[in-house]
Amino acid sequence: MYNLELLESIVQQAFVNAERGHDYWHAMRVVQNARYISSIEGGNISIIEASAWVHDMVDEKFTSLEHSIDSVNTILLQCGFSKHECETIIYIISNISFKGGLSTVENPSIELQIVQDADRIDAMGAIGIARAFHYGGFKNRELYNPTIEPEIFKTESEYRNSQGHTINHFYEKLFTLYSQMNTSAAKRIAKQRHEYMETFVSQFLHEWNGNFDVI
Ligand code: ADP
Ligand code: NI
């Protein structure tokens, strides 16, 4: 049988020094979101949970792609997944990333759809706001700059190298996530988190613009 506890402890070890937006706790929350969505939408729960645990271990932002795929493969085999299941999981995690909204897969499996929704939901709501400002701080970005308009990115590197401020990130990415949810269960959760972020940005701009009346 699969050893998902071993997988969890390997992920925990692997992310000890991770950038905090993509650490063990992010993986834990994505697993939690994915379990809940799967309880409504179905799919193979072992494949879903394993994909959620390792989903940020294959990412060209951090390491070389081939090297990280090899090590994830070894870890999954060690946790009892067959070669074929490892391929399925690696396919899922190689195709869920946001990448400026540029990545799309034809006919995604329900497992891929659920893990993608689970990851995107963790970029929304109160946690999404916390992660965005954390990431902005990590990159030394401005909180806000009224002279810099949101951009529409045509390539992944444009998205990665943008020097924009963090409020723009809401317009460039976070407010687009709700309409990109794959499953109905995720749409329902995303709706509430989307509205929460809208309230946050209006309050932020209200304060920035020197409004002192209560909204
Ligand atoms: P993915 O791993 O799904 O491709 P990203 O690496 O783009 O997604 O984003 C991971 C987290 O970092 C998300 O919470 C996202 O909102 C945040 N983030 C990414 N780019 C920025 C940015 N330019 N400003 C603020 N937060 C960002
Ligand atoms: Ni993630």
Average pLDDT for all residues: 92
Order of helices and strands: HHHHHHHHHH
- By DSSP, the count of extended strands is 0
| Structural classification | mainly alpha
- CATH class category: Mainly Alpha
Low-pLDDT segments, ≥5 res? none
Sheet with the most strands? none
CATH topology: Hypothetical protein af1432
List the ions, cofactors and other small molecules found in this model. Answer: adenosine-5'-diphosphate, nickel (II) ion
CATH architecture: Orthogonal Bundle
Oligomer: single chain
Intertermini distance: 55 Å
Q: Supply Rg.
A: 18 Å
Level of helix content?
55-70%
Overall geometric form = globular
Topology:
Blueprint: H1 4-14, H2 24-41, H3 45-54, H4 65-78, H5 83-95, H6 110-121, H7 125-138, H8 156-161, H9 166-172, H10 184-208
Helix pairs in contact: 1-2, 1-3, 2-3, 2-6, 3-5, 3-6, 4-5, 6-10, 7-10
Nickel (II) ion binds next to helix 2.
Summarize the structure.
With 215 residues, the chain is mainly α. The chain has helices at 4-14, 24-41, 45-54, 65-78, 83-95, 110-121, 125-138, 156-161, 166-172, 184-208. The protein is globular.
Structure, explained:
This protein is mainly alpha-helical. It has a single domain, classed as Hypothetical protein af1432. 60% of the residues lie in helices and 0% in strands. It has ten helices and no strands. Helix 1 packs antiparallel against helix 2 and helix 1 runs parallel beside helix 3 (45-54). The longest helix is centred in the C-terminal third of the chain and has 25 residues, at 184-208. It is globular. The model has no long low-confidence stretch (mean pLDDT 92). It binds adenosine-5'-diphosphate (ADP) and nickel (II) ion (NI). Residues 22, 26, 30, 55-56, 119 line the site of nickel (II) ion.
